[in-house]
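Hello Y.,

Per our agreement to keep a running log of every chain we model this quarter, I'm adding this entry. I've kept the format consistent with earlier entries: sequence first, then predicted structure.
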Amino acid sequence: MSDIDLHYLSQCYGRAFASCELVVPGVNRTYRLAAGGDVYYLRLYRPVGRSPAEIAFELRLLREVRPTPGLDVARPIRTVDGADCAQVLFGGVGRAACLFEALDGRPITDGPEDVALFGSALAKLHDALAGIGGGGARLLDPAALASISGSEAAQRAIDRCRAEMLGDPAAHGMPSGNCHGDARLANAIVQDATVGFFDFDDCGCGPYLLDLGTAAWHLALGDPSRTAALIAALLEGYGSERPLSQAERRVLPHYVKLAEVRSLLFLAEFCTLADGLWRRVLDRATNLLERELTI
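Predicted structure for the entry above:
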């Protein structure tokens, strides 16, 4: 039984949806829908923390991304009335929802070849999104962590990282543009050497190292014995499309730590974790932020 009104959605999008399956729970919910042999994905946006203007920019990016060999994105579908989003009632609260075309392909593995392919596609994505205006920086609110018991050490580590990054002259003036915002292997698939990206919920404008740092951070959370080789493959793939400057390579560790900070603050602002899980999350973040990272 679905918690989404399929009859209403069918009317909104002019498609006879026959099934609806929750595939990603959480603050943003994602559903797989089927209609007439075709598959779609519905994103139910969180009710707070994402403005209508930010959602509109995300959908504009995905519609205006320049066609590029080896690159694809999940395209949004307008309602029959031409609106970007439908308004869906969930838990008694109206929430914005958008329907997306399904991308064909297989998951990207954490093997060096796939990671390098992902890196090259990420550079292509940055180029394909360049020049699309209307986006802004996604600001962080460190105060969100203050309400979490036992977070004092993590807060101090965040303050130190912020001071180090702002105080490093090499970290300023980095190549910038529109970014995916959550560039990781799980947010892409591959088919015949074409990488398709989805889940642009965190998109915005900023240094391209935001995406590279996020991808490297996710790789660093895996098997430590493989981290160096996988990050090297990521950078080699990216550099094959847009060579990184020496300054970018030098300051990349700042952006790996920034990915940890962004994740931590998102959890603090939008998610409810058990006390025991919070302790593990805070300890992991503090340990990473206080380490000297070499990439």
